[in-house]
Amino acid sequence: MKPRQQRMLAVGLAVLGVAIAAGLTLRAFEDNMMFFVDISDVIAGEYPEERNFRIGGLVVDGSVMRQEGALDMSFRITDMRCELGVEYTGVLPDLFREGQGVVAHGAMGDNGIFVADKILAKHDENYMAPEVAESLAKHVDEKTQTLREGTTECEQP
Amino acid sequence: MIPELGHFALILALSLALCQALLPLIGAQRNDATMMSVARSAATGQFVFVAISFGCLTWAFLQDDFSVLYVASHSQLSLPTPYKVSAVWSAHEGSLLMWILILAGWTLAVARFSGDMPQKLVSRVIGVLGLLSVGFLLFALLTSNPFERLVPAALDGADLNPLLQDPGLAIHPPLLYIGYVGFSVAFAFAIAAMISGELDQQWAKWTRPWTTVAWLFLTMGIALGSWWAYYELGWGGWWFWDPVENASFMPWLIGTALIHSLAVTERRGLFKSWTLLLAITAFSLSLLGTFLVRSGIIVSVHAFASDPTRGFFILAFLGVVIVGALALYAWRAPSMDSSAGFALLSRETFLLLNNVLLVVATTVVLLGTLAPLIVEMLNGGKISVGAPWFEVAFLIPMLPLIFLLGLGMHTAWRKQASDSWIRVLRIPAIIAVVLGIVIPLLFYGRVSVMIAVGCILAVWMVSTALVLPLRSWRREKGTAGITRSTLGMSVAHLGMGLFVLGATVVSSFGMEADRSIRIGESLELAGFEFELRELRQVQGPNYSAIEGVVEVRDGGEFIGTVRPQKRQYLVQKNWMTEAGIHSSLNKDLFVALGDQLGDGVWSIRVQYKPMISFIWIAAFVMALGGVIAVSDRRYRVPVRGRQDANDVVAEAV
Amino acid sequence: MLRYFMPLVVIIVLLVFFYKGLGNDPGVLPSQYIGKPAPVFELPSLKDASRTVSNADLKGQVSLVNIWATWCTGCRAEHGFLMQLAEQGDIPIYAINWRDRRDSALSFLSQLGDPYVASGFDEDGRVGIDWGVYGAPETFLIDPDGQVVYRFTGPLSDAAWQREFVPRIEELRQ
C-alpha cells in the first residue's frame, strides 16, 4: 500500500471502531449509570422509579435492627433533615456502624422503604464520601437556619 | 538530625537534577562535549542523594522517630518491622519520595547501559529525565515534605492503616511505580528524538527494551494490586473498575500499544509519529493517574487523602510536561514520518489494528472514569458508573483484538501469501473451536454463547502462541531456532490467553452466597461443604482477632481448613475482615466472616472461584515474556560492527 | 498537518476540564457559618459532668474551638502542636470532644497532656452536626462576638498555623 492509502486505512478503521464502540458504550451507559439522590428528595418522592440509585447519609443511632440469627436487617439513614428506612440482606462492610456515614445502592420498595442490594462504607474512619458530606452539609446548614427561625423540618408530599 | 539530613539530601538532589537537566540539553544543542559529559555523573549523583534521603526516612520509621509527623501518622511501636519499612511508601509524601527514587534509578540505569548510543542522544534523554526529576523534587519539597517535624514528638504513632499491613500491598506500589516511572524513559527518548528531528530504526531498537521492562513491571504491579484487592478488601472481587485501578490500567494499555508500535518502527521504520505519540501518551497517562489519585478529584476507595494544593501543583506540572511534549510533537512529527508501503495482508496491518483497538479500549476506560466528573460539571447530577458498564464496553474492542492477535503473530512483514497463512492457522483454529466448547461442558457442565466465545478466544490465543515455539523445538538439528524476541512474544501472548481463560471461567462459573451459620453447622456451595468447627480468640502483634475454623469437604472428603478472621487493630480500633482462602490451581474457595448476628449465629460469605489463580499466573507469564524478549541478544551486542545483526533481528516483533 | 495538532487540542481541553474539576473539589467545604454566629451549643464538661461549656464561654476574646476524638488519628497528630500552643498561652483553646467515650478521652488527655481551657463532651455528636463537622479534627477561629472567622479541617501544624491563623488573629486584635 502507498502511504496515502495506509493513512486512509488507519483513519477509516479508527473512525469505524470509535463509532461502533461509542454507539454501544453509550447504550450500555444509559443502563448502568446510577444517580445519587438526597434522602430529602427521596422522601419528597423525587427519585428515579424502576431503576437503581444511590443514597448516602448517617446511620441513625439505635436504628439498626436485626432478626436474631438471620441475615436480614434494617436501619434508618438520615441526611440530618429527613430519615429513610433501609432494608438489606447480606454481609455488611467492616466499617458499617451506627452514627457513621454509609452509601447504599438499591431501589425504593413499595412500602416507602429503600431496599439496598449493596452497602458501602469506606475503609477509613475519617473518610466520608464527598456526595454524602455535601448532602449533609446542605441540610445541616438548613437546620441551623431552621433552629434559629423555627420553620418546619422534613417535608413530605 | 537524621530527618534534617534527609531533607538536605533532597535539596542537594534537586540542584544536581537541575545540572543533569540543563547542562546536557544545552550541551547537545551547542555540540559541547564537556557539557554533555555532565549527564552521566549528575544522574549518578542525583540518585545517590535521593537514595540517602529515602534511607533517612526509612531509618526514621525503623527507629520509631515519632518526632517526624509522617512517621507518627503512619507507624506505631508494635508495628511489625517489615511493615515499618513498607509504611515509608504507604501515604502521599513517602510514596512520592519513592517515585522520585525510582525515577532517579531509571535515569541511572539509562546512564549505565547506554554505552553504544551516540552522546547527543544520551545527553538529551538524561536531560529530559532530569527535567522530570526537577518537577517531582519541587513537588515533594514545596508541598509534600515527608521530613516535617512534629513538636513535641508523639509518644506513639497513629499506626499504619490495617488494610496496608499486608505483604501483597507492601510490594505492590514499588512494582507499579517502577512501571509507571519506566514509561518516562520512553517519553524521554521520544522528546530527544523530536528535539534532534532524527528518528531511525536504531532509535526504536534502543527505546524498545526500556519500554518492555517498564511494561513488565507495570503488569506485575497491576496483578499484585488485583490479588491484594481480592483477598484483603475481603469480598472476593479481583477487578472493580475503580478510578485508581483504571489509572494504572490505562498506561498499561497504551504501553502495550507502544511496544507493538515500536516493533514496527524498529523493523520497518514505519509508524514513527504514531510511536512518538504513544510514548508521550503512556507517560502522560501515568502522570494523569498520579493526579487522579492524589488530588481528590475523583472518589475512590484507594484515593490518598485529598489536598487541592497538591492537585493544582500536579495539574500544573502535568500541563507543562504534556502540553510541551505535544507542542513539540505538532511541530516536529510531520517531518518525521516515512513512506514505506505494505500490503493489506501483512504484519504491519495487524499491528496497526492492534494499536487502534488498544487506543479505543483506553478511551473507553478513560471516558468511564471521567464520566461522573463530566456529568457533574454539566449539572447532570451526581452519578457513578458501575462495573457492568466497563465490562460490556471494554469487551467491544478487546474481542476483535484477541482474535486478530492470533492471526497477526503468523503474518509476515510487508506481504503475506494467504495460502500458507491458512495452512499454518488451520490447526490452532480447529483446536480452539473444539476445546473452547468442550472445556466448559466437560468441567463445568454448561456452555453459553458468551462462555464459548471467551473460551474459544482463549484457546485460540494459547494455541497460536505455541506454534512458533513448538516448531522451533521440533526443528532439525543445526537449523536456526527462534530468537528470544519471538519466544518472548509467544510467551506473553500465551499469558494473555491464560488470562482470558481464567477471567471467562471465573466470571461464568463463580458462585457466592451470604449465609448465617453457627458453630457445628455446615453449608454447601458448588458441591463443597463448609463446616464452622469453632470460633476462637487470636492475638496478633498489633491486633486481636476472632478466628473461625472452617473445614472444607469435597463430596464428603476433607480437603482443607481455612481460618477467616475478623481483626480489630489495637490503635486505630478498625475492624478488618481477613478472608480464609483454600487455593488450588483449578479453584479458590473463599470464606469471610461477617458479623455476629446474635444468639451465637454469624453471617458468613463463601465463594467458589474456579480458575481464578490463572488470572495472576497469566500476568506473571506475560511479564516473563517481557523478560525473555528483553534478553534477546541484539540488545546486548554493541552497535559497531554489527550492521548485519539487523537482518537476524528480522524474525522478531 | 492538522492531525498532528489534534492531540494537543484534546489535552488542552482535558486540562481545562480538570482545572475546573479541581475548583469543584467536593473535599473543600467552605463553612457557611463564616461571618455568622457560632452555632448554639451547651455541653456537659468532659472533666466534670455537672458543669457545662457553652457559647457564653467564648464571648469577649479571640478563641479556638477544636473538634477532636480519641479514635481520630489526625487528632493525635495535631495534639503535640496544640500542647505547644497552649503553653504559649496566646489564645485559649476550647474543645468539643466528639462522638467519643468519656473514659478514653480522659485517659488520652492525662497521658498526652490537656491543652484545652475547657472541653465539652458531645457524646452523640449532635453539636458536631450543628457545627457542620464532617470529620475530626477541625478547628474553628471565633472572634470576641462569638462569630466564626475561619474554619480549618484536618490536623493543625505549625506551618498551617502561621499561614492561616496568625494573620487572621492579628487582624482581629487590632
Quick recap:
The complex is a heterotrimer of chains A (157), B (653) and C (174). By secondary structure, chain A is of the alpha+beta class.
Write a structural description.
The complex is a heterotrimer of chains A (157), B (653) and C (174). With 157 residues, chain A is α+β, with helices and mostly antiparallel strands. Chain A has three helices and seven strands. Chain A has a five-stranded mixed beta barrel with strand order 2-4-5-7-6. Chain A is elongated, with a radius of gyration of 22 Å. The N and C termini of chain A lie far apart (69 Å). Chain B has 653 residues and is α+β, with helices and mostly antiparallel strands. In chain B, 62% of the residues lie in helices and 12% in strands. In chain B, strands 3, 4, 5, 6, 7 and 8 form a six-stranded antiparallel beta sheet that branches. A four-stranded antiparallel beta sheet of chain B has the order 2-11-10-9, with helices on one face. Chain B starts with a helix and ends with a helix. With 174 residues, chain C is an alpha/beta fold. Chain C has a single domain (34-173), classed as Glutaredoxin, CATH 3.40.30. Chain C is 40% helix and 20% strand. Chain C is built from six helices and seven strands. In chain C, strands 5-4-3-6-7 form a five-stranded mixed beta sheet. In chain C, strands 1-2 form a two-stranded antiparallel ribbon. In chain C, strand 6 (138-142) and strand 7 (148-153) form a beta hairpin. At the A-B interface, helix 1 and strand 1 of A face helix 13, strand 1, helix 14, strand 2 and strand 8 of B. Strand 1 of chain A pairs antiparallel with strand 1 (383-385) of chain B, so a sheet runs across the interface.
